Amino acid sequence: MASEAPRIEIRLQANRVLYLSRETRFSLVILITLNSQKPVTFVKVGNELGMGLVNQLITQSVECVDAESEEAVPVLAEPNCNESKEECPPLMTIYDRRSDYLTFTTASTPREYEFIFETNKLQSDRIYTVICHPLTLRWWSYDSREDILSYYASHGELPPSETPPLPCSATRHEISFSTCQDLPQSPAITVSLSAPSTFSLSNNPPFRFTTTFTSHAPQPITALAEREDIKTSNKDVEVLSSETRLPIDSDLIDDGNMSGPWRREDFLRMEPEVPYVESRVLDPTKAYSGFENLRVGEEYVLRMPNSQWPWWSEDSVDEVMSYAGDRDSGQLGHMPSIELICHDEVRFRAVK
Question: Per 3-state DSSP, what percentage of the chain is helix, strand, and coil (rounded to 5)?
Answer without folding.
Answer: 10, 40, 50
